[in-house]
Every structure is written in C-alpha cells, then in structure tokens.
Amino acid sequence: MAAYVDSYYRDTQRVSLSNTEPLHGTHRADVCVVGGGVTGSAAALHLAERGYRVKLLEAQRIGWGASGRSGGQIMPGFGTDLKVIANAVGTAGAQQAWEMSREAVRLTAELVERHDIPCDLKWGAVHAALKPRHLREFQAWQREMAEVYGYHGLHWLDREALHERVRSNAYIGGLHEPEAGHLHPLNYTLGVAAAAQRAGAEIHEGSAVTGLERGSPARVTTAEGRVDADFVVLAGNAYLGGDLEPALRGRIMPVSNYIIATEPLTEHQVANTLPYDDAVSDANFVLDYYRLSADRRLLYGGQVSYNGREPRRLRERMEAKLARVFPVLEGIHVTHRWGGRVGITLNRAPHFGRVGSNVYFAQGYSGQGMALAGLAGRLLAEAIGGQAERFDLLSRLRHQRFPGGERLRTPLLVLATNFYRMRDLI
Ligand SMILES: Cc1cc2nc3c(=O)[nH]c(=O)nc-3n(C[C@H](O)[C@H](O)[C@H](O)COP(=O)(O)OP(=O)(O)OC[C@H]3O[C@@H](n4cnc5c(N)ncnc54)[C@H](O)[C@@H]3O)c2cc1C
From the CB of 209, is ligand 1 less than 6 Å away? Predict the structure, then answer.
C-alpha cells in the first residue's frame, strides 16, 4: 500500500479511520465499492445510510487519489459548458443537471456540518479574466446563467472591484461567485469515509481490485480476498486503468495536474494577495487556480502533464507564475509540491452509467469533481435503491472513446490541448 504523496494535505491530516485492514478471505455484501476517493466514500456513506451492507475496497489509502490531492475548490457546474449537456439531454435536462450541481455544493456543506468534518470549508470564489476575450466570455456566461438557468449567483467585478478581492494586476475583471468555496480535500474525503464507517460500511485499504466477474452476484477479487456482491460501484476514476472493466476503457484520459504550497503568508502578504480568502481560477483553457489554506499558505495549481511524469523544472515554473500574479510573493519559500491524476472525458462532461444491470460507475468529472463526486455517491445510492431518474439523466450524456487507442490517444490529446494553449496566449 502506497503512502500518501508528500503534500501539504498529508502534513495537515486531521481525520483518521479505524479498522481498515486489507481484505482477506471470502465475503458477501449487498454492494462492493471499488475506490475510496470522494465518489466511493460518498457512495458507501449514502448506501450504508439506506441500510445496505457495503464493502469499500481501496487499493492504497482513503483519499490517496485525486480527492486527497486536489485544489479543494467547490464549485457548482461541470467541467464542460452547459451547452454540451443541453445538446445531449435538452434544455430542461440541462436545467435539472445544473440544479443538481448546485445541490452537490450544498451536499458538501451538509456533510461537513452533519459529520463535523474538520476541513476548513470557506465560501467565495473569483473567476478572473486575463484578457478582453475572457471578459466577453464571462459576460455571455453570466447572461446565459441568469436568463436560461435563473442563476443570479455570478456577480460582475470590474477591474477595480476584482483588484479589491484579488490583489493582482494580472487580471482585468471577472466574476465573484459566493455560492462556491474551498476546503481541505484530504480531511474532507477522510471525514466522509469515517461517516460511512459509522453508518456501517466496512472499508479495506491496501486492497487493489484485480478482477471483476459480472453476474448475480458479481465477484470482485483482490490479491487475498473476494467479495460477492449484488451490486458493484466502480469509483476508481483516473486511477482505475483499463483492464478491470473493458466497457470503460478509453472513455477517460488521466491527465496529471500539479500544485505548490508556500510557507504561511504574513498578514501583510495576505492583505496584498487574497484579503477575502476566495478561491480563484483564471479563464484559460489550461487554467491556474489558487487559494489560501487555513494556515494562510498559498496553494497554487496549474501545470499539467500528459504522460504522468512531472514536467521539467516544475517548481521554477510554478514559482515564476506565482511571482507574475503576485509580485509581493516573489522569493517566498515553497514548502511542498505534488501532483495527481484528473480523469477527463473527451467532451469534459461527467461519465455516469451501468455495465450490465448491476455494475455502476461514476467518473470523468474533468477537473471539477470535488463537489460532484459527493453528489455522484448520493445518485449511485438512489439508483441502486431503485430511484434511478437522476442518475439516468447524467447517464444519458454519451461519451466517445479518445481517438487513437491506448498508444496514440495521449499524443492526440497533447495536440488538441496545445491548440487551446496557443489560444490562451492570444
Ligand atoms: C491536482 C488536482 C487538483 C484538482 N483540483 C480540483 C478542484 O480544485 N476542484 C474540483 O472540483 N476538482 C479538482 N480536481 C478533481 C477532483 O479531485 C476529482 O474530480 C475528484 O477528487 C474525483 O474523485 P474520485 O473519488 O472519483 O476519484 P479519486 O479521488 O481519484 O479516487 C479513486 C480511488 O480509487 C482507487 N482505485 C483505483 N483503482 C482501484 C482498484 N482497482 N482497486 C481499488 N481501488 C482502486 C484509487 O487508489 C483512488 O484512491 C483536482 C484533481 C487534481 C489531481
């Protein structure tokens, strides 16, 4: 079992679990959940609360994947434009999906409160424009959200108002979204898993699932154990790999994303960077995002890699970005850097569905999964409980395989992304 990556989150972990020894022997469960990020932990919680006997198998440790490494930004919406969703499920379907994404944010807050999870949840986010094209896109977005979706939660910030919230000269305006926020993602994920344990779910860490035989019951195997279950939930997302369930192969692409953490900022530095403690993301396709931690470090994310290897001179490049956005932080000491895999789909919409009648999955949130994965857990539990309408709405979003097969899909994605990166520069 691998240790947590050397991240700021690992060093500030405040939630621990009990009884998570690896699976041994043969077991029977109503539902076997594969993967212990937010998706799997929330599914285990909601299923256990409905009275199902749940076994959750996690290859490494709870929150070891994207969930325990993320930027921690909690946003309504999806990794794609709502137009993509409307094209697939119609305007009424997209409206319902949008409201579900807002529910995902509320659900996050409810779970934090109900289970008393010490994850430093804060509200407020800023979408920052770097160039006039971004401002025009924000204007169109704000108008569409108000007119089509009745959402009035995006507040216009002119250059001065933005500068008041984000003390950087890099931006020319933007939007403030009070309904969005940020939290400590590892403590949150562990807190949801601990709540699942209290509700009766059994969690086994260090239990990589190596085999899945469909059937009734389905058979899930690890190196030293087996679970026969009426239902299986696949929640391995970008870490699942293509071998366990061929039907999912090639539908998501793992892209690595990186974050640095600075030493704690002084009060003067906070006042001259993020005095309102907002989560910030810029409007580039390959975007930069950042926020303050509870102990006032700047957590700055943004570099990507498509081959899983850390980009060359990552630290220097991230430090240079940071200094460009906040010259006041030039030379600040960087204490941590880490990366994790984001599961992206070709159209950046989430990928929900079933294989056969009793293997369910939710994955591919395309960079915006911290809140949605919690909702996915609720929707998976609803669907397994026989109320599948909401799960099925998202399952109607169809997903193509990445072109090029296993060998060529990465170079093709790099080519496509390079196009958008070039666009980010103009
Ligand atoms: C650096 C980074 C920054 C991000 N920032 C944000 C952000 O600010 N806001 C946001 O909304 N989203 C963000 N995301 C995305 C977000 O973290 C993910 O969408 C979300 O955490 C996905 O949760 P998950 O449970 O589906 O997957 P994961 O958290 O990846 O969990 C999958 C788990 O399954 C396990 N697993 C895989 N295969 C097996 C197997 N065969 N057997 C047993 N276990 C298995 C893995 O070990 C892993 O722990 C970020 C992601 C990264 C990497």
Answer: yes
Residue 396: which CATH number? 3.50.50.60
DSSP 3-state of 273: coil
User: What is the best residue among 9, 17, 67, 105 to mutate for testing ligand 1's pocket, by most ligand atoms within 8 Å of CB?
Assistant: 67
Share of the chain above pLDDT 70, in %: 95
Whether residue 66 has pLDDT greater than 90: yes
Q: Rounded to 5 degrees, what are φ and ψ at 49?
A: -65, -25
225 lines ligand 1 (CB under 6 A): no
Centre of ligand 1 from the C-alpha of residue 365, in Å: 9
Q: Does some domain include residue 290?
A: no
The 3-state DSSP class for residue 130 equals coil
Q: How many domains does the chain have?
A: 1
Q: What is the pLDDT of residue 413?
A: 63
Tell me, using a 6 A CB cutoff, whether residue 66 lines ligand 1. yes
Q: Is residue 308 part of a domain?
A: no
Ligand 1 lined by 257 (C-beta under 6 Å):
yes
Q: What's the pLDDT at 421?
A: 60
Nearest alpha carbon, ligand 1 atom 18: 369
In the DSSP assignment, the letter for residue 260 is E
- pLDDT value, residue 229: 98
**For residue 423, pLDDT beyond 70:** no
Asked whether residue 66 is assigned to any structural domain, the reply reads yes
**Residue 354 pLDDT more than 80?**
yes
* CA-angle at 233, arms to 232 and 238, nearest 5°: 135
The pTM of the full predicted model, rounded to 2 decimals, is: 0.96
Q: Which domain holds residue 193?
A: 8-70+186-250+347-408
- What contacts 178, CB < 8 A, 6 or more positions away? 123, 124, 153, 155
pLDDT band at 223 (very low <50, low <70, confident <90, very high): very high
User: Domain for residue 44, yes or no?
Assistant: yes
Cβ neighbours around 308 below 10 Å, total: 11
